[in-house]
Protein backbone atom coordinates (compact mmCIF):
# COMPACT_ATOMS: atom_id res chain seq x y z
CA UNK A 1 0.00 0.00 0.00
CA UNK A 2 1.44 3.39 -1.02
CA UNK A 3 2.28 5.81 1.79
CA UNK A 4 2.59 9.57 1.93
CA UNK A 5 6.37 9.11 1.68
CA UNK A 6 5.99 7.11 -1.54
CA UNK A 7 3.89 9.88 -3.04
CA UNK A 8 6.46 12.49 -2.00
CA UNK A 9 9.33 10.47 -3.45
CA UNK A 10 7.58 9.75 -6.75
CA UNK A 11 6.54 13.37 -7.22
CA UNK A 12 9.94 14.79 -6.21
CA UNK A 13 8.40 16.88 -3.42
CA UNK A 14 8.75 16.91 0.35
CA UNK A 15 6.33 15.03 2.62
CA UNK A 16 5.32 18.40 4.04
CA UNK A 17 4.29 19.72 0.63
CA UNK A 18 2.29 16.60 -0.17
CA UNK A 19 0.63 16.84 3.22
CA UNK A 20 -0.29 20.49 2.56
CA UNK A 21 -1.92 19.47 -0.72
CA UNK A 22 -3.89 16.72 1.01
CA UNK A 23 -5.07 18.97 3.79
CA UNK A 24 -5.60 21.96 1.53
CA UNK A 25 -3.44 24.12 3.79
CA UNK A 26 -1.14 27.00 2.89
CA UNK A 27 -0.13 28.15 -0.60
CA UNK A 28 0.28 25.45 -3.23
CA UNK A 29 0.65 26.16 -6.95
CA UNK A 30 -1.86 24.54 -9.30
CA UNK A 31 1.02 22.76 -11.01
CA UNK A 32 2.21 21.16 -7.75
CA UNK A 33 -1.31 20.23 -6.78
CA UNK A 34 -1.95 18.53 -10.09
CA UNK A 35 1.39 16.71 -9.91
CA UNK A 36 0.54 15.33 -6.46
CA UNK A 37 -2.95 14.24 -7.49
CA UNK A 38 -1.54 12.52 -10.55
CA UNK A 39 1.06 10.58 -8.55
CA UNK A 40 -1.55 9.67 -5.92
CA UNK A 41 -3.67 8.22 -8.68
CA UNK A 42 -0.77 6.33 -10.24
CA UNK A 43 0.26 4.81 -6.92
CA UNK A 44 -3.40 4.22 -5.89
CA UNK A 45 -2.69 6.18 -2.69
CA UNK A 46 -5.58 6.43 -0.20
CA UNK A 47 -5.42 9.12 2.49
CA UNK A 48 -5.71 7.19 5.74
CA UNK A 49 -8.80 8.49 7.53
CA UNK A 50 -7.90 6.45 10.59
CA UNK A 51 -4.57 8.25 10.98
CA UNK A 52 -6.25 11.59 10.42
CA UNK A 53 -8.87 10.80 13.04
CA UNK A 54 -6.13 9.95 15.52
CA UNK A 55 -4.23 13.15 14.90
CA UNK A 56 -7.28 15.32 15.41
CA UNK A 57 -8.92 13.06 18.03
CA UNK A 58 -12.14 13.11 16.02
CA UNK A 59 -13.32 10.86 13.25
CA UNK A 60 -15.70 12.88 11.08
CA UNK A 61 -18.22 10.23 12.00
CA UNK A 62 -21.72 10.68 13.38
CA UNK A 63 -23.04 7.85 15.50
CA UNK A 64 -26.75 7.17 14.96
CA UNK A 65 -28.54 5.13 17.62
CA UNK A 66 -32.07 4.01 16.91
CA UNK A 67 -34.26 1.22 18.24
CA UNK A 68 -35.29 -0.57 15.03
CA UNK A 69 -34.33 -0.01 11.39
CA UNK A 70 -37.26 -1.92 9.92
CA UNK A 71 -39.86 0.36 11.48
CA UNK A 72 -40.75 2.75 8.63
CA UNK A 73 -40.40 5.84 10.83
CA UNK A 74 -36.83 5.05 11.83
CA UNK A 75 -35.95 3.96 8.29
CA UNK A 76 -37.08 7.41 7.15
CA UNK A 77 -35.13 9.18 9.89
CA UNK A 78 -31.97 7.20 9.12
CA UNK A 79 -32.34 7.82 5.42
CA UNK A 80 -32.58 11.58 5.89
CA UNK A 81 -29.72 11.66 8.42
CA UNK A 82 -27.46 9.76 6.00
CA UNK A 83 -28.30 12.10 3.15
CA UNK A 84 -27.53 15.20 5.20
CA UNK A 85 -24.36 13.70 6.70
CA UNK A 86 -23.07 12.81 3.22
CA UNK A 87 -23.67 16.39 2.10
CA UNK A 88 -21.67 17.74 5.03
CA UNK A 89 -18.81 15.25 4.68
CA UNK A 90 -19.61 13.02 7.65
CA UNK A 91 -19.81 9.23 7.74
CA UNK A 92 -22.66 7.46 9.55
CA UNK A 93 -21.85 4.74 12.04
CA UNK A 94 -25.01 2.84 12.80
CA UNK A 95 -26.07 1.34 16.12
CA UNK A 96 -29.39 -0.39 16.81
CA UNK A 97 -30.56 -0.56 20.42
CA UNK A 98 -33.49 -2.95 19.84
CA UNK A 99 -35.46 -1.14 22.58
CA UNK A 100 -33.05 -2.51 25.19
CA UNK A 101 -31.62 -0.16 27.78
CA UNK A 102 -28.46 -2.22 28.22
CA UNK A 103 -27.83 -2.30 24.49
CA UNK A 104 -28.39 1.45 24.26
CA UNK A 105 -25.73 2.03 26.90
CA UNK A 106 -23.35 -0.23 24.97
CA UNK A 107 -24.01 1.83 21.84
CA UNK A 108 -23.05 5.02 23.69
CA UNK A 109 -19.88 3.34 24.97
CA UNK A 110 -18.97 2.29 21.43
CA UNK A 111 -19.53 5.82 20.19
CA UNK A 112 -17.11 7.03 22.88
CA UNK A 113 -14.39 4.63 21.86
CA UNK A 114 -14.87 5.44 18.18
CA UNK A 115 -14.22 9.15 18.89
CA UNK A 116 -17.32 10.20 16.99
CA UNK A 117 -17.89 13.88 16.29
CA UNK A 118 -21.42 13.59 17.68
CA UNK A 119 -24.35 11.25 18.23
CA UNK A 120 -27.97 11.40 17.13
CA UNK A 121 -30.12 9.40 19.54
CA UNK A 122 -33.61 8.55 18.33
CA UNK A 123 -36.67 7.90 20.46
CA UNK A 124 -36.76 5.25 23.12
CA UNK A 125 -37.75 5.69 26.72
CA UNK A 126 -34.85 5.07 29.05
CA UNK A 127 -33.49 7.08 31.91
CA UNK A 128 -30.80 9.60 31.35
CA UNK A 129 -27.95 9.35 33.87
CA UNK A 130 -25.74 7.31 31.55
CA UNK A 131 -25.60 10.15 29.10
CA UNK A 132 -23.86 12.61 31.37
CA UNK A 133 -20.19 13.57 31.02
CA UNK A 134 -19.99 12.73 27.33
CA UNK A 135 -17.19 14.37 25.38
CA UNK A 136 -19.28 14.69 22.23
CA UNK A 137 -22.60 16.41 21.51
CA UNK A 138 -25.68 14.21 21.91
CA UNK A 139 -28.60 15.30 19.74
CA UNK A 140 -31.92 13.69 20.61
CA UNK A 141 -34.75 13.19 18.12
CA UNK A 142 -38.26 12.72 19.54
CA UNK A 143 -36.69 11.59 22.76
CA UNK A 144 -36.95 12.34 26.52
CA UNK A 145 -36.85 16.06 26.92
CA UNK A 146 -34.13 16.69 29.45
CA UNK A 147 -31.18 14.71 28.18
CA UNK A 148 -28.52 15.46 25.63
CA UNK A 149 -27.06 18.66 24.25
CA UNK A 150 -29.93 19.55 21.98
CA UNK A 151 -33.39 18.06 21.58
CA UNK A 152 -35.25 18.10 18.25
CA UNK A 153 -38.88 17.18 18.08
CA UNK A 154 -42.06 17.90 16.17
CA UNK A 155 -45.06 19.64 17.70
CA UNK A 156 -46.67 16.44 18.95
CA UNK A 157 -49.33 18.25 20.94
CA UNK A 158 -50.48 20.26 17.96
CA UNK A 159 -50.53 17.05 15.89
CA UNK A 160 -52.78 15.42 18.46
CA UNK A 161 -55.10 18.44 18.37
CA UNK A 162 -55.31 18.41 14.55
CA UNK A 163 -56.02 14.67 14.42
CA UNK A 164 -58.68 14.69 17.12
CA UNK A 165 -60.43 17.81 15.85
CA UNK A 166 -60.59 16.36 12.34
CA UNK A 167 -62.37 13.22 13.59
CA UNK A 168 -64.90 15.35 15.50
CA UNK A 169 -65.39 17.69 12.52
CA UNK A 170 -66.09 14.68 10.29
CA UNK A 171 -68.95 13.67 12.58
CA UNK A 172 -67.37 10.87 14.65
CA UNK A 173 -69.30 10.30 17.87
CA UNK A 174 -67.26 7.70 19.71
CA UNK A 175 -63.49 8.26 19.57
CA UNK A 176 -60.71 5.83 20.31
CA UNK A 177 -57.03 6.57 20.90
CA UNK A 178 -54.58 3.74 20.25
CA UNK A 179 -51.05 4.50 21.33
CA UNK A 180 -47.74 3.03 22.28
CA UNK A 181 -47.16 4.44 25.74
CA UNK A 182 -49.52 5.58 28.43
CA UNK A 183 -49.14 9.19 29.39
CA UNK A 184 -51.60 8.65 32.23
CA UNK A 185 -48.98 9.07 34.95
CA UNK A 186 -45.86 10.75 33.54
CA UNK A 187 -44.81 12.29 30.29
CA UNK A 188 -41.65 10.46 29.29
CA UNK A 189 -41.37 11.29 25.65
CA UNK A 190 -42.40 14.09 23.29
CA UNK A 191 -44.67 11.61 21.49
CA UNK A 192 -46.73 11.20 24.66
CA UNK A 193 -48.13 14.66 24.00
CA UNK A 194 -50.19 13.15 21.16
CA UNK A 195 -52.24 11.38 23.80
CA UNK A 196 -52.35 14.39 26.10
CA UNK A 197 -53.79 16.50 23.26
CA UNK A 198 -56.40 13.83 22.50
CA UNK A 199 -57.45 13.78 26.17
CA UNK A 200 -57.58 17.60 26.31
CA UNK A 201 -59.76 17.91 23.20
CA UNK A 202 -62.05 15.14 24.48
CA UNK A 203 -62.33 16.39 28.05
CA UNK A 204 -65.73 17.99 27.58
CA UNK A 205 -67.17 14.83 26.03
CA UNK A 206 -69.04 12.12 27.93
CA UNK A 207 -66.62 9.50 29.18
CA UNK A 208 -68.53 6.71 27.46
CA UNK A 209 -67.74 8.35 24.14
CA UNK A 210 -63.97 8.09 24.56
CA UNK A 211 -61.88 4.92 24.63
CA UNK A 212 -58.19 4.86 25.49
CA UNK A 213 -56.14 1.88 24.33
CA UNK A 214 -52.51 2.13 25.37
CA UNK A 215 -49.78 -0.42 25.75
CA UNK A 216 -46.12 0.34 25.81
CA UNK A 217 -45.37 -2.73 23.70
CA UNK A 218 -47.33 -1.03 20.92
CA UNK A 219 -44.52 1.47 20.55
CA UNK A 220 -42.76 -1.11 18.39
CA UNK A 221 -45.98 -2.33 16.97
CA UNK A 222 -44.85 -4.45 14.06
CA UNK A 223 -46.22 -7.50 15.86
CA UNK A 224 -49.32 -6.25 17.63
CA UNK A 225 -52.01 -6.67 15.04
CA UNK A 226 -54.06 -8.97 17.26
CA UNK A 227 -54.07 -6.41 20.06
CA UNK A 228 -55.49 -3.73 17.78
CA UNK A 229 -58.09 -6.11 16.33
CA UNK A 230 -59.34 -7.03 19.82
CA UNK A 231 -59.74 -3.35 20.73
CA UNK A 232 -62.09 -2.94 17.75
CA UNK A 233 -64.04 -6.11 18.62
CA UNK A 234 -64.45 -4.89 22.23
CA UNK A 235 -65.68 -1.45 21.11
CA UNK A 236 -68.00 -2.04 18.14
CA UNK A 237 -69.54 1.46 18.35
CA UNK A 238 -66.25 3.34 17.87
CA UNK A 239 -66.43 5.38 14.65
CA UNK A 240 -63.19 7.39 14.84
CA UNK A 241 -59.66 6.24 15.71
CA UNK A 242 -56.59 8.37 16.34
CA UNK A 243 -53.62 6.01 16.06
CA UNK A 244 -50.38 7.37 17.52
CA UNK A 245 -48.34 6.12 14.53
CA UNK A 246 -48.97 5.20 10.89
CA UNK A 247 -47.91 1.62 11.62
CA UNK A 248 -50.67 1.31 14.22
CA UNK A 249 -53.04 3.07 11.80
CA UNK A 250 -52.23 0.48 9.12
CA UNK A 251 -53.10 -2.28 11.58
CA UNK A 252 -56.41 -0.61 12.40
CA UNK A 253 -57.17 -0.50 8.69
CA UNK A 254 -56.27 -4.16 8.27
CA UNK A 255 -58.40 -5.15 11.29
CA UNK A 256 -61.33 -3.21 9.78
CA UNK A 257 -60.94 -5.20 6.53
CA UNK A 258 -60.95 -8.47 8.49
CA UNK A 259 -63.97 -7.46 10.58
CA UNK A 260 -65.97 -6.10 7.63
CA UNK A 261 -65.91 -2.52 8.93
CA UNK A 262 -66.02 -0.04 6.03
CA UNK A 263 -63.42 2.77 6.09
CA UNK A 264 -64.14 5.71 6.02
CA UNK A 265 -67.94 5.14 5.92
CA UNK A 266 -68.30 3.32 9.28
CA UNK A 267 -65.01 4.24 10.89
CA UNK A 268 -62.49 7.00 10.26
CA UNK A 269 -58.76 6.76 11.02
CA UNK A 270 -55.97 9.30 11.50
CA UNK A 271 -52.37 8.15 11.93
CA UNK A 272 -49.18 10.03 12.82
CA UNK A 273 -45.72 10.40 11.17
CA UNK A 274 -46.53 10.36 7.42
CA UNK A 275 -44.14 7.54 6.52
CA UNK A 276 -44.36 5.58 3.26
CA UNK A 277 -46.65 2.96 4.79
CA UNK A 278 -49.40 5.59 4.94
CA UNK A 279 -49.39 5.58 1.14
CA UNK A 280 -49.29 1.80 0.74
CA UNK A 281 -52.63 1.15 2.45
CA UNK A 282 -55.99 1.07 0.68
CA UNK A 283 -57.45 3.60 1.21
CA UNK A 284 -54.41 5.82 1.91
CA UNK A 285 -54.06 6.84 5.55
CA UNK A 286 -54.90 10.35 6.71
CA UNK A 287 -52.04 11.35 8.97
CA UNK A 288 -50.02 14.04 10.69
CA UNK A 289 -46.88 14.90 8.75
CA UNK A 290 -43.64 15.19 10.72
CA UNK A 291 -41.00 17.23 8.87
CA UNK A 292 -38.39 14.49 9.30
CA UNK A 293 -36.19 15.93 6.57
CA UNK A 294 -35.75 19.26 8.33
CA UNK A 295 -35.37 17.57 11.70
CA UNK A 296 -32.55 15.36 10.36
CA UNK A 297 -30.93 18.32 8.62
CA UNK A 298 -30.87 20.28 11.86
CA UNK A 299 -29.49 17.31 13.82
CA UNK A 300 -26.47 17.03 11.52
CA UNK A 301 -26.04 20.81 11.34
CA UNK A 302 -26.07 21.02 15.16
CA UNK A 303 -23.23 18.49 15.41
CA UNK A 304 -21.23 20.40 12.81
CA UNK A 305 -21.84 23.69 14.63
CA UNK A 306 -20.85 22.34 18.04
CA UNK A 307 -17.72 20.88 16.42
CA UNK A 308 -16.88 24.43 15.31
CA UNK A 309 -17.40 25.73 18.83
CA UNK A 310 -20.77 27.33 18.19
CA UNK A 311 -23.77 27.29 20.49
CA UNK A 312 -26.96 25.49 19.42
CA UNK A 313 -30.50 25.64 20.84
CA UNK A 314 -31.30 23.31 23.72
CA UNK A 315 -34.63 22.45 22.16
CA UNK A 316 -36.18 22.93 18.74
CA UNK A 317 -39.80 22.13 17.91
CA UNK A 318 -40.94 21.82 14.31
CA UNK A 319 -44.54 22.35 13.18
CA UNK A 320 -46.64 19.45 11.89
CA UNK A 321 -49.32 19.42 9.19
CA UNK A 322 -52.44 17.40 8.53
CA UNK A 323 -52.36 15.25 5.37
CA UNK A 324 -55.82 14.08 4.39
CA UNK A 325 -56.12 10.79 2.50
CA UNK A 326 -58.83 8.17 2.10
CA UNK A 327 -59.40 7.08 5.72
CA UNK A 328 -61.31 10.22 6.68
CA UNK B 1 -8.93 12.60 28.75
CA UNK B 2 -7.29 9.68 30.62
CA UNK B 3 -4.65 7.68 28.75
CA UNK B 4 -3.35 4.14 29.15
CA UNK B 5 -0.39 5.64 31.04
CA UNK B 6 -2.70 7.36 33.52
CA UNK B 7 -4.46 4.06 34.18
CA UNK B 8 -1.13 2.28 34.68
CA UNK B 9 0.12 4.98 37.06
CA UNK B 10 -3.07 5.10 39.13
CA UNK B 11 -3.24 1.32 39.44
CA UNK B 12 0.47 0.93 40.26
CA UNK B 13 1.00 -1.41 37.29
CA UNK B 14 3.07 -1.22 34.11
CA UNK B 15 1.59 -0.03 30.83
CA UNK B 16 2.27 -3.54 29.45
CA UNK B 17 0.14 -5.17 32.12
CA UNK B 18 -2.75 -2.76 31.62
CA UNK B 19 -2.51 -3.34 27.87
CA UNK B 20 -2.66 -7.12 28.42
CA UNK B 21 -5.83 -6.70 30.48
CA UNK B 22 -7.39 -4.52 27.78
CA UNK B 23 -6.51 -6.94 25.01
CA UNK B 24 -7.27 -10.02 27.09
CA UNK B 25 -3.83 -11.41 26.27
CA UNK B 26 -1.54 -13.63 28.42
CA UNK B 27 -2.04 -14.52 32.09
CA UNK B 28 -3.57 -11.88 34.34
CA UNK B 29 -4.81 -12.61 37.87
CA UNK B 30 -8.43 -11.80 38.67
CA UNK B 31 -7.26 -9.34 41.29
CA UNK B 32 -5.14 -7.39 38.79
CA UNK B 33 -7.91 -7.45 36.21
CA UNK B 34 -10.43 -6.07 38.70
CA UNK B 35 -8.00 -3.40 39.84
CA UNK B 36 -7.48 -2.21 36.26
CA UNK B 37 -11.19 -2.16 35.49
CA UNK B 38 -11.86 -0.20 38.66
CA UNK B 39 -9.23 2.43 37.86
CA UNK B 40 -10.46 2.67 34.24
CA UNK B 41 -13.92 3.36 35.58
CA UNK B 42 -12.67 5.95 38.08
CA UNK B 43 -10.67 7.77 35.43
CA UNK B 44 -13.41 7.36 32.81
CA UNK B 45 -10.83 5.79 30.49
CA UNK B 46 -12.00 4.86 26.99
CA UNK B 47 -9.89 2.48 24.90
CA UNK B 48 -9.18 4.41 21.72
CA UNK B 49 -10.54 2.38 18.80
CA UNK B 50 -9.03 4.84 16.36
CA UNK B 51 -5.51 4.18 17.64
CA UNK B 52 -6.15 0.44 17.62
CA UNK B 53 -7.39 0.61 14.04
CA UNK B 54 -4.24 2.46 13.01
CA UNK B 55 -1.91 -0.05 14.63
CA UNK B 56 -3.57 -2.97 12.91
CA UNK B 57 -4.45 -1.09 9.68
CA UNK B 58 -8.05 -2.31 9.99
CA UNK B 59 -10.99 -0.72 11.75
CA UNK B 60 -13.29 -3.58 12.78
CA UNK B 61 -15.82 -1.80 10.62
CA UNK B 62 -17.98 -3.24 7.87
CA UNK B 63 -19.05 -0.81 5.17
CA UNK B 64 -22.61 -1.39 3.97
CA UNK B 65 -23.59 0.18 0.65
CA UNK B 66 -27.22 0.05 -0.38
CA UNK B 67 -29.34 2.11 -2.74
CA UNK B 68 -32.21 3.20 -0.47
CA UNK B 69 -32.84 2.72 3.24
CA UNK B 70 -36.55 3.47 3.10
CA UNK B 71 -37.32 0.61 0.73
CA UNK B 72 -38.56 -2.15 3.08
CA UNK B 73 -36.31 -4.80 1.50
CA UNK B 74 -33.12 -2.83 2.13
CA UNK B 75 -34.31 -1.80 5.60
CA UNK B 76 -34.66 -5.50 6.38
CA UNK B 77 -31.25 -6.35 4.92
CA UNK B 78 -29.56 -3.53 6.86
CA UNK B 79 -31.33 -4.51 10.06
CA UNK B 80 -30.11 -8.11 9.82
CA UNK B 81 -26.58 -7.07 8.84
CA UNK B 82 -26.35 -4.76 11.83
CA UNK B 83 -27.58 -7.46 14.20
CA UNK B 84 -25.05 -9.98 12.94
CA UNK B 85 -22.21 -7.44 12.89
CA UNK B 86 -22.95 -6.45 16.51
CA UNK B 87 -22.80 -10.13 17.54
CA UNK B 88 -19.41 -10.52 15.89
CA UNK B 89 -17.95 -7.29 17.29
CA UNK B 90 -18.03 -5.21 14.10
CA UNK B 91 -19.37 -1.70 13.64
CA UNK B 92 -21.50 -0.79 10.62
CA UNK B 93 -20.57 2.25 8.54
CA UNK B 94 -23.49 3.09 6.33
CA UNK B 95 -23.40 4.44 2.77
CA UNK B 96 -26.42 5.06 0.56
CA UNK B 97 -25.85 5.13 -3.18
CA UNK B 98 -29.34 6.41 -4.16
CA UNK B 99 -29.18 4.28 -7.35
CA UNK B 100 -26.44 6.54 -8.69
CA UNK B 101 -23.35 4.97 -10.18
CA UNK B 102 -21.16 7.96 -9.34
CA UNK B 103 -22.31 7.96 -5.74
CA UNK B 104 -21.69 4.22 -5.49
CA UNK B 105 -18.11 4.72 -6.63
CA UNK B 106 -17.68 7.45 -4.02
CA UNK B 107 -18.98 5.06 -1.36
CA UNK B 108 -16.34 2.51 -2.35
CA UNK B 109 -13.64 5.20 -2.21
CA UNK B 110 -14.77 6.21 1.27
CA UNK B 111 -14.67 2.59 2.39
CA UNK B 112 -11.08 2.42 1.17
CA UNK B 113 -10.00 5.48 3.10
CA UNK B 114 -11.79 4.26 6.24
CA UNK B 115 -9.74 1.04 6.17
CA UNK B 116 -12.85 -1.11 6.55
CA UNK B 117 -12.47 -4.81 7.21
CA UNK B 118 -14.89 -5.54 4.38
CA UNK B 119 -17.85 -4.23 2.42
CA UNK B 120 -21.33 -5.60 1.80
CA UNK B 121 -22.70 -4.20 -1.45
CA UNK B 122 -26.44 -4.61 -1.98
CA UNK B 123 -28.26 -4.80 -5.30
CA UNK B 124 -28.02 -2.12 -7.92
CA UNK B 125 -27.12 -2.58 -11.54
CA UNK B 126 -23.87 -0.87 -12.39
CA UNK B 127 -20.84 -2.11 -14.20
CA UNK B 128 -18.03 -3.69 -12.31
CA UNK B 129 -14.59 -2.39 -13.32
CA UNK B 130 -14.40 0.08 -10.45
CA UNK B 131 -14.47 -2.74 -7.94
CA UNK B 132 -11.23 -4.33 -9.02
CA UNK B 133 -8.00 -4.10 -6.99
CA UNK B 134 -9.72 -3.54 -3.68
CA UNK B 135 -7.70 -4.35 -0.59
CA UNK B 136 -10.76 -5.55 1.35
CA UNK B 137 -13.30 -8.28 0.63
CA UNK B 138 -16.41 -7.16 -1.26
CA UNK B 139 -19.47 -9.28 -0.51
CA UNK B 140 -22.37 -8.76 -2.88
CA UNK B 141 -26.02 -9.36 -1.94
CA UNK B 142 -28.47 -9.94 -4.82
CA UNK B 143 -26.11 -8.11 -7.11
CA UNK B 144 -24.43 -8.62 -10.52
CA UNK B 145 -23.00 -12.08 -10.55
CA UNK B 146 -19.38 -11.60 -11.54
CA UNK B 147 -18.12 -8.87 -9.26
CA UNK B 148 -16.76 -8.97 -5.75
CA UNK B 149 -15.12 -11.60 -3.62
CA UNK B 150 -18.24 -13.56 -2.80
CA UNK B 151 -21.81 -13.29 -4.08
CA UNK B 152 -24.81 -14.17 -1.92
CA UNK B 153 -28.23 -14.46 -3.44
CA UNK B 154 -31.51 -16.30 -3.11
CA UNK B 155 -32.79 -18.80 -5.67
CA UNK B 156 -34.60 -16.18 -7.73
CA UNK B 157 -35.37 -18.59 -10.56
CA UNK B 158 -37.02 -21.10 -8.24
CA UNK B 159 -39.00 -18.24 -6.66
CA UNK B 160 -40.26 -17.21 -10.09
CA UNK B 161 -41.29 -20.81 -10.80
CA UNK B 162 -43.16 -21.14 -7.48
CA UNK B 163 -45.00 -17.84 -7.96
CA UNK B 164 -46.04 -18.51 -11.57
CA UNK B 165 -47.07 -22.10 -10.95
CA UNK B 166 -49.22 -21.05 -8.00
CA UNK B 167 -51.16 -18.57 -10.14
CA UNK B 168 -51.76 -21.24 -12.82
CA UNK B 169 -52.74 -23.81 -10.19
CA UNK B 170 -55.27 -21.37 -8.72
CA UNK B 171 -56.96 -21.15 -12.13
CA UNK B 172 -55.64 -17.84 -13.47
CA UNK B 173 -56.00 -17.68 -17.27
CA UNK B 174 -54.30 -14.43 -18.20
CA UNK B 175 -51.05 -13.77 -16.35
CA UNK B 176 -49.15 -10.51 -15.97
CA UNK B 177 -45.55 -10.01 -14.82
CA UNK B 178 -44.70 -6.60 -13.37
CA UNK B 179 -41.02 -6.12 -12.73
CA UNK B 180 -38.27 -3.63 -12.20
CA UNK B 181 -35.82 -4.52 -14.96
CA UNK B 182 -36.27 -6.15 -18.31
CA UNK B 183 -34.36 -9.39 -18.72
CA UNK B 184 -35.36 -9.50 -22.38
CA UNK B 185 -31.82 -8.88 -23.63
CA UNK B 186 -29.29 -9.50 -20.87
CA UNK B 187 -29.37 -10.82 -17.36
CA UNK B 188 -27.73 -8.16 -15.23
CA UNK B 189 -28.84 -9.11 -11.75
CA UNK B 190 -29.85 -12.26 -9.90
CA UNK B 191 -33.34 -10.79 -9.47
CA UNK B 192 -33.78 -10.81 -13.25
CA UNK B 193 -34.16 -14.58 -13.01
CA UNK B 194 -37.63 -14.03 -11.52
CA UNK B 195 -38.74 -12.80 -14.92
CA UNK B 196 -36.84 -15.52 -16.78
CA UNK B 197 -38.64 -18.18 -14.73
CA UNK B 198 -42.02 -16.55 -15.42
CA UNK B 199 -41.27 -16.57 -19.16
CA UNK B 200 -40.12 -20.20 -19.06
CA UNK B 201 -43.21 -21.42 -17.21
CA UNK B 202 -45.47 -19.43 -19.58
CA UNK B 203 -43.71 -20.43 -22.83
CA UNK B 204 -46.29 -23.07 -23.76
CA UNK B 205 -49.16 -20.64 -23.25
CA UNK B 206 -50.76 -18.54 -25.99
CA UNK B 207 -49.03 -15.19 -26.25
CA UNK B 208 -52.27 -13.30 -25.77
CA UNK B 209 -52.55 -14.84 -22.31
CA UNK B 210 -49.28 -13.38 -21.06
CA UNK B 211 -48.50 -9.70 -20.42
CA UNK B 212 -45.03 -8.41 -19.56
CA UNK B 213 -44.79 -5.03 -17.84
CA UNK B 214 -41.21 -4.05 -17.15
CA UNK B 215 -39.55 -0.73 -16.48
CA UNK B 216 -36.21 -0.27 -14.87
CA UNK B 217 -37.50 2.68 -12.89
CA UNK B 218 -39.83 0.24 -11.13
CA UNK B 219 -36.85 -1.25 -9.36
CA UNK B 220 -37.16 1.57 -6.84
CA UNK B 221 -40.85 1.61 -7.06
CA UNK B 222 -41.87 3.78 -4.15
CA UNK B 223 -43.18 6.36 -6.60
CA UNK B 224 -44.59 4.33 -9.44
CA UNK B 225 -48.14 3.66 -8.35
CA UNK B 226 -49.60 5.34 -11.41
CA UNK B 227 -47.55 3.14 -13.74
CA UNK B 228 -48.92 -0.02 -12.14
CA UNK B 229 -52.49 1.30 -12.18
CA UNK B 230 -52.28 2.04 -15.90
CA UNK B 231 -51.06 -1.50 -16.61
CA UNK B 232 -54.21 -2.87 -14.97
CA UNK B 233 -56.46 -0.44 -16.84
CA UNK B 234 -54.82 -1.43 -20.15
CA UNK B 235 -55.27 -5.14 -19.45
CA UNK B 236 -58.71 -5.57 -17.86
CA UNK B 237 -58.81 -9.35 -18.45
CA UNK B 238 -55.66 -10.12 -16.43
CA UNK B 239 -56.58 -12.36 -13.48
CA UNK B 240 -53.16 -13.20 -12.07
CA UNK B 241 -50.17 -10.92 -11.36
CA UNK B 242 -46.63 -11.91 -10.40
CA UNK B 243 -45.01 -8.75 -9.03
CA UNK B 244 -41.23 -8.90 -8.78
CA UNK B 245 -41.24 -7.30 -5.31
CA UNK B 246 -43.66 -6.90 -2.42
CA UNK B 247 -43.59 -3.14 -2.87
CA UNK B 248 -44.86 -3.52 -6.44
CA UNK B 249 -47.35 -6.13 -5.18
CA UNK B 250 -48.67 -3.63 -2.64
CA UNK B 251 -49.20 -1.10 -5.43
CA UNK B 252 -51.08 -3.68 -7.50
CA UNK B 253 -53.34 -4.31 -4.51
CA UNK B 254 -53.93 -0.60 -4.03
CA UNK B 255 -54.69 -0.10 -7.72
CA UNK B 256 -57.20 -2.97 -7.52
CA UNK B 257 -58.93 -1.24 -4.60
CA UNK B 258 -59.13 2.00 -6.62
CA UNK B 259 -60.42 0.25 -9.73
CA UNK B 260 -62.97 -1.89 -7.87
CA UNK B 261 -61.20 -5.18 -8.75
CA UNK B 262 -61.79 -7.77 -6.01
CA UNK B 263 -58.68 -9.58 -4.70
CA UNK B 264 -58.40 -12.59 -4.72
CA UNK B 265 -61.79 -13.26 -6.37
CA UNK B 266 -61.19 -11.41 -9.67
CA UNK B 267 -57.42 -11.10 -9.58
CA UNK B 268 -54.71 -12.96 -7.69
CA UNK B 269 -51.32 -11.48 -6.74
CA UNK B 270 -47.98 -12.97 -5.74
CA UNK B 271 -45.13 -10.71 -4.62
CA UNK B 272 -41.45 -11.38 -3.87
CA UNK B 273 -39.17 -10.76 -0.82
CA UNK B 274 -41.53 -11.26 2.16
CA UNK B 275 -40.82 -7.93 3.82
CA UNK B 276 -43.07 -6.40 6.46
CA UNK B 277 -45.14 -4.52 3.91
CA UNK B 278 -46.55 -7.89 2.75
CA UNK B 279 -48.24 -8.15 6.15
CA UNK B 280 -49.53 -4.58 6.24
CA UNK B 281 -51.77 -4.89 3.22
CA UNK B 282 -55.40 -6.03 3.29
CA UNK B 283 -55.57 -8.83 2.36
CA UNK B 284 -52.03 -9.93 3.25
CA UNK B 285 -49.80 -10.48 0.23
CA UNK B 286 -48.86 -13.98 -0.92
CA UNK B 287 -45.14 -13.84 -1.58
CA UNK B 288 -41.81 -15.61 -2.03
CA UNK B 289 -39.78 -15.58 1.16
CA UNK B 290 -36.09 -14.65 0.85
CA UNK B 291 -34.08 -15.89 3.84
CA UNK B 292 -32.56 -12.43 4.42
CA UNK B 293 -31.49 -13.32 7.95
CA UNK B 294 -29.28 -16.19 6.82
CA UNK B 295 -27.98 -14.21 3.84
CA UNK B 296 -26.93 -11.33 6.13
CA UNK B 297 -25.40 -13.75 8.62
CA UNK B 298 -23.29 -15.33 5.90
CA UNK B 299 -22.21 -11.93 4.54
CA UNK B 300 -20.77 -10.87 7.91
CA UNK B 301 -19.30 -14.33 8.54
CA UNK B 302 -17.57 -14.25 5.14
CA UNK B 303 -15.88 -10.93 5.98
CA UNK B 304 -14.73 -12.31 9.34
CA UNK B 305 -13.39 -15.47 7.70
CA UNK B 306 -11.50 -13.61 4.98
CA UNK B 307 -10.05 -11.36 7.70
CA UNK B 308 -8.71 -14.55 9.34
CA UNK B 309 -7.17 -15.65 6.06
CA UNK B 310 -9.76 -18.29 5.25
CA UNK B 311 -11.27 -19.03 1.86
CA UNK B 312 -14.99 -18.41 1.27
CA UNK B 313 -17.30 -19.58 -1.55
CA UNK B 314 -17.44 -17.41 -4.66
CA UNK B 315 -21.19 -17.77 -4.81
CA UNK B 316 -23.85 -18.98 -2.40
CA UNK B 317 -27.51 -19.44 -3.32
CA UNK B 318 -30.16 -19.80 -0.64
CA UNK B 319 -33.50 -21.53 -1.19
CA UNK B 320 -36.75 -19.57 -1.18
CA UNK B 321 -40.20 -20.61 0.05
CA UNK B 322 -43.75 -19.72 -0.92
CA UNK B 323 -45.76 -17.91 1.78
CA UNK B 324 -49.47 -17.97 1.03
CA UNK B 325 -51.60 -15.13 2.35
CA UNK B 326 -54.89 -13.53 1.31
CA UNK B 327 -54.11 -12.38 -2.27
CA UNK B 328 -54.29 -15.91 -3.74
From TrEMBL, chains A, B:
PROSITE patterns in the cross-refs: HTH_LACI_2 (PS50932)
Domain HTH lacI-type: 2-56
Position of the signal peptide: none
InterPro entries for the chain: HTH_LacI, LacI/GalR-like_sensor, Lambda_DNA-bd_dom_sf, Peripla_BP_I
A Pfam family that the UniProt record links to this protein: Peripla_BP_3
UniProt-listed SUPFAM superfamilies: lambda repressor-like DNA-binding domains, Periplasmic binding protein-like I
Keywords: DNA-binding, Repressor, Transcription, Transcription regulation
Name of the featured protein: LacI family transcriptional regulator
Source organism of this protein record: Blautia faecis
Lineage of the organism: Bacteria, Bacillati, Bacillota, Clostridia, Lachnospirales
